[in-house]
Every structure is written in C-alpha cells, then in structure tokens.
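Narrative summary of target 7.
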Amino acid sequence: MLVAVCAPIQAQGDKTSKGTYLYQDAQEVWRNTSNAAGLGLDSLTSRGVTFFELSQLNTDHYLVQNGNKQNTIHFLSERYQRIGKYLVGFGRFEFNTGRDFGRAWCDMLRTEHSNPYISGSDKPGKYERQLIDLTAQLSTVQMGPMTYGFRLDYKVGDYSRLKDPRSRVMMAQYRVVPSITYSMGHHTLGLAAHYQRYKEKLTGLTTVQTDATLMYYQASGLEHVIGTVGGYNAFSREFANHEFGIEFDYNFQTEAFQSLNSFGFEHAREYMYEQYKAEPGAWRNQEWRFVSQNRIYHETKLHQLDLTLKYLPALGDEYRQQKVIELNSETGSSTTYYQTLITYKNRYEVYEYQADLHYRLSWLEGIKTKAYASARATYQYDKEQYNLPVSFRKVGYLDAVLEGGSALFDRSERSFWVEAKAGYHVSTTSELSLNDASGIYATSVLLPDMDYYGANFFHSQLELTYLMPVTFKKYRNIWFAKIGGSYLKTDNHTDGYYAAASIGIYY
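Modeled conformation, tokenized:
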C-alpha cells in the first residue's frame, strides 16, 4: 500500500493542505473511474491524508432493519504517489468499527433493495461491526499513446449480534481490474474490465439463555417470511456472488476544458447455500451506468459539472426443494442433499433508477482552492415486486442540496475552514400493495418503513476544520482537527442528528 504518515520538508508553497487537496481532487478526474490506467494521464501530484474519527448517529427517522443509533470509530489513510520515472500509484486503507442499536429482522450486512433471502430475529438488538477496505492502483506513465493500469479492491467484514439469538456474519469481497488507455491528440479512449467475488456467511446461531418462545424468521421477498420457534438452531446460510463488468471511457481535453465520459456494465449471479447445500433460491443483478465529468479551467476559477445515471435491475428465482437421504447398503453410510422440485422463475424483481447532477464553482489561488460553492440534485426510484401472488412496493425521492466552504484565514500554513450544506428531500413516490398486509413482517417492517419512505425532510450539515504545521524529527506536515454535525427534521415529526470529531494529517 502506498500509505505514509510524513514527508520531508518542502518549500512552503508546495506543502499539501486542505486547499491543495480539494484542488487536486477536483482536477484529477480519472481517479473517479474504474480505469486505473487513467492515473498515468492525470496531473498527479504526490500527496496523502490520514485521519482518525469518532462519530455518533441518533435518529427516530430510520428503517427497521437499519436501527436507530450508531457509534463508529473510523480510520482512513490514502496516498497518491509517483514511483520512479515510469509508474504512478494510489493506495487506501480504511477501517470502520462500532455498534448499531435497535436493529431487527436482518442479520446480514445488506438490507435495502438487495437479495431478499435474508434472515433475522424480530427482537431488536445491538450489533458489533468491523469492516476493513483496501484499495491499490498502479499505472504506467504514457508509453507512446498507451498507459496500462491495474486495480485491486479487497474488503472484509465481521458483523455480530449481541442479543439472543446471537448471529455472526463474515464477509469477504475482492475485485481485480486491468485497464488500458489510448491517446490521440486531445482524445483518449479507455477500457477496463473486472471480476468481483463477494461472499457473506452466516454461521451457526447461539443463545445464552433458554427461551421457548424465541422465533427466527427467513424471508423470500416483501411480506413473505417463515418463522419457526427455535428456528435458529443449526441454521446457517452462505451467499456467493460472482460479478463481471466492463467500462468504456472517452476523454477530451484541452488546456481550458476537459470532459471524461464513462459507460459501464456489470452482471452478477449470486448463489445461496444452507446445510447440505440446500438452496432457497438464486439472485441475478446488473448495473448500467453513465458518468460524465466536465471541467472548465480559469486562472482563478474552476467549474465542475458532473452527471451520473444508473439503472440497476435484479431478478430472484425461488426454489422448492426436498431433502433426500441415500443409504449405501455396502458401507452403511448415508448421503444427504436437497433436490429442487419446483423453480419459480423471476418470482422477485427489483428495478432501481438513479440520477445525480452536481455543479461546483471553486475559487483558486495558484494550485489551492480558497473557497467553493455547489448545488446538487439527486433523484432515485425503486420498485420491488413479488409475483404469484403479486405484491409490490414503489418508493422514490428528489433531494436538492446547496453547499459551500471557505478558508476564513489562510496564512503561514495555518488555516481555518468552514463548510456547510443545506437541502430538502421530497418523497415523490411512496406506495405499498401487499397480498397479505396482516402478517407479522408486514406490520413490523414494511408498513412502519413506509413512514420513512413517505417523509419529506430538511437536512443540514456544518464542519469546522483548523489546520496547522507540526514539525516532528525534521519532518514538517499539516495537521488538522475537525468537528462536524448534521441534523434532519421530517414532516412526520421525527428527527435525527449526527456528530463527529476527527484529527488527521495531510502529507
């Protein structure tokens, strides 16, 4: 990993700080794509940031399966680095740990608009999580018209319930992405392809106390769940997802203008296994996306206009299986497996549409951002449908945000930044139609969640950052301390707040 915590003393004007980091993040557009070979085309400056953050979220505007409170410890370290004459690279290490409170009905890491074959207890409880996320990218500089790159993403997670029935979910995910670019004057073509494997495993559940009434539920989509007293005994489930994807990039660049447009497609199939390789069903999902990043450069201003469009369809098959035990009369041994009797093709469907438009104007001083103002509009629509019998849920929203930030003073490598945003979230669609609305899952999860999806709310955020130089053993870097918080208030008379404090270093 290309991560460090200090750098030799440089000239004062070259010292990495928040302002230079914002400027470089804005102009290095290839880093926002899957194409690692594009790093060799960006005007990459060696730079990095490391920080440690404590945060807390409290809200009564929440989804039942996500809980109403989170305590989090977050550590991140990343570095962009030139390596000799011919290579550039990027590395990031991220660690997230904490506890989630008031969560019920789902023991898995993924909940909303994803694989419906989840399981959990109806008793709210607290969960402990540990997540590690590693990214490494390497690219050549231009070799004639070409650059070559490679990216590796690796994530692991551990998610444990701390109340009976006690579950433990372990997750591992990796993605490998080779890529190339080809340049012709002001034009560049890029190509990246990837393979990703995701695995999530729910191990055997345990209890500390004996409760003859304790239920455990398995879901198959919307209101359809099966609950069993003591159903957690000997229950386990494994999710194995294999994904292939490709991305095409086209970049046009002059001294004053740049436009990078990316089109991506991903296709995945997910298998689920229980004891003796029993399978409740199968899950297939895709992602189609278009991302356009545009920059207009002036000596004292930088204009950004970004557009993201996504379409994410997914289909789930449901299996009816029979347990088969075969006896070997010669050895006396037995073999147990499950045989699929009926397949309900495409019994569960999910369609998700996303659109995001973002404009930002940055005021510059050399290679440093002194202030910025931006506006963003986000639209999302999701439809989930269970077939035979038909039930569906349709939800959508439009969110508009204004944002701004400025260094109130910036001299002698010391600066103080104030950043704020405010926005309004409008529920555009909130519709639920169930074949059976009287079941426990419908009354405990789906109907209460509609208050969340149907709410309109105002949200705001404020961050204050103080930066100062610190010299330690002849190494001089910019350290910072940051506090921040956010608040939302809905028209359903619910609200929520988030508070965080962090300390870190630019280098």
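Confidence is low (pLDDT under 50) at residues 1-13.
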